[in-house]
């Protein structure tokens, strides 16, 4: 008898598909696998979604807001939109402030986002965000603008923690936390 190792039959190569229709389960699989890799590589498990929603006071329907996530010390702003009729009232500033504050509460040192030149880069710059990159895109004359903001505040004494995880946007600033 001849004892030679026998190679297992070759598996067919994976199929690669380009699609515009990504099922939620497939997105979750990819996202969760990357998150697992990042946790194993960094030893830090701090990835959490974030949303600051502007809701209709009568119906509770979402009218606009901001979505993003926090991970590895960064706040990522993914989407931010308010309908035209809600702009110019300070709601956008309050939504952004609450997202930044939640990032700080979660221990984020910095925040990052990108916008398009015809959207609102000046809005972010008025709120202390700094441009760190720009890439031309279409239509001609348009660009993607990448911005960042430092979130760590200098320590100036004791501040009471405030839980803003379920803070409702009413158009008014939230009451100050009691010491």
Secondary structure tally: strands:
6
Output the structural class.
alpha+beta
Shape: elongated
Proportion of helical residues: 10-25%
Q: Rg from C-alpha positions?
A: 22 Å
| Uncertain residue ranges | 158-179
Mean pLDDT: 87
Strand order of the largest sheet: 1-2-3-4-6-5
Distance between the termini: 84 Å
Helix count from the secondary structure assignment: 3
Strand content: 25-35%
The ordered string of helix (H) and strand (E) elements is HEEEHEHEE
Largest sheet: 6 strands, mixed
Structure keywords:
single chain; 179 residues; alpha+beta; six-stranded mixed sheet; 28% strand; disordered C terminus
Question: How would you summarize what this structure contains?
Answer:
With 179 residues, the protein is an alpha+beta fold. 22% of the residues lie in helices and 28% in strands.
